[in-house]
Each structure stands twice: as structure tokens, then as C-alpha cells.
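Here's my example:
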Amino acid sequence: MKKFLLASTALVATTGFAAAEMSWSGSSNMGMEYSDNGTTTLHMEIDLGMSATGETDGGLAWSVEMGLDSNVTDSAEAGAADVGSVSITGDFGTLRMGAASNAATTVGIPDVGYDGIGIDDVAEGNMAAGTEDDLQWDYSADSIALRVSTDSLTDDMAASATWTSGSLSIAVSHAAAGETGGADATNGSISTDVGGFSVTIMASQHSTAANDAWGMSASMPVDGLGTVTVVTASNDTDAKSSYGIGFSKSLGGGATLAGGYGSDNGNDVGDLGVSFSF
């Protein structure tokens, strides 16, 4: 990560603010993706993130974040700048506006593969009840972490609570659409890690029974392969359960070799590639 200080004219001229610290970070990947519903494709992504942080004389911390995304799949190019977010942090917690995280997504399971083969989506796909939020509040005290998010236009809302003790973590969340009679979902997960062997189990109950879902993952270190993860998921809409197995091995220097293979509702899927972080 590259860091440098910016003392802008506006900040210097404004009483009560110190110079802002600005940093850039990023990630990228390249590899192959396979699905027996289509063809094997080459896929590449580049994600760049910028953040600027500072603190007022009164002790309020602030942060501005924004990202640039680019991806290429078999020469089909796409790219965009995300909407970014602005946050302020104090004794009240952290208040974020812009690209907020939906509180329902506190619950979830990991995927496998360098870019992900989508097994986690089978369990997680409907737990946010369709909400897209632009306001987020986070607060932590001891072993409890709270999050509330909402869409200021539609009044969609979600809330979550996570309790952590050592390697044991229990999370619950609830999401509801803003319109009268809209969808809602209640979700929960429990995860733990013992001697390098980690397990996560989650379930989601949706107001539409066909969207009820569950998932489970387990991972452990394996010589020569880094970390091997097995994941399975199912929902009441798909005709078949989904499952996958994958590995992730650090190559050093911010590079990771990873791959995954499995079945998504009866459709064979897989990927293999290298990801980079910087």
C-alpha cells in the first residue's frame, strides 16, 4: 500500500481539521472459469481503492472511500467507478453514507475458487430480502458488534448482531423490504476454529418459503495446497443441492493461487487462477 499526506488548501484553511492521510490499495486476479452450461472463459479483474482519513480536534474520525473496477472476460471489457462512501466515527459508533453494506450480509459462508464459483450464493441469495442500502451504522462494545442499514429511498432496512468469544462467533440478522407486505428474511450463522480446522453453518428463513436456505463450510490446512475448503448449500427453489471443494495457497509477495470445482444446482462449475493484493 502506498501512503502519502495531503494537506489541501481547504483543509489548511479550515480551523479544527488536521491534514488528511490518503492511501491507495488494490487487488486483481487472472485465470480460467468453467461451466458446463457454457464454455471455458478467461477472466481478469482489477480493483483499485482510495481512502482519505482524518480526525477533528474534538476526536471525531472521518473517512472517504472510493473504488475503480475493471474486468475482462474473453475480451469483453467492462469497468466502472463505485459510488464511494463517507463515514464519521465517534463514541456513537460509525455512521456511513453512500456505498453501505447491507446488515443482513453479516451472516454468510465462504465460497471456493480464485474468483468464486457461486456456491455461497445458493444459501445467501435471498437473505437480504432485496434491500440495497445507502446508510449504515456500526457499533461495537466488548464482544458484541451491531449493524443497522437502510435504503433512504425505499425504506428497506436490515439489522444484525454478532457475538464473538475467542474463535467462536454467532451472528443473527433480519432484513425487510420497505413496502407494505414486502419480503423479509431472518438469518443466522455460527462459526468456530479449532486447531486450524474451521467450520461455519448458516440458515436463512424467508417470508417466501421457497427462498428458505442453508449452507455449511469447513476448511483446514493441507501440506502443499495451503488451505482446502469444502462448502455445500441448498435452498427450497433449486432442484438439487450445491457443493464445491477448493484450495488457496499463498505464493508470497501478495500473490495467491486458488481454484475450486463443484456443482451448482446440477451444473458443473469451476475456476483456477492467481489473485494479487497490493
Remarks:
- Helices lie at 9-13, 119-124.
- The radius of gyration is 21 Å.
- Residues 2-277 form a domain with the Porin fold (CATH 2.40.160.10).
- The chain has one domain: 2-277.
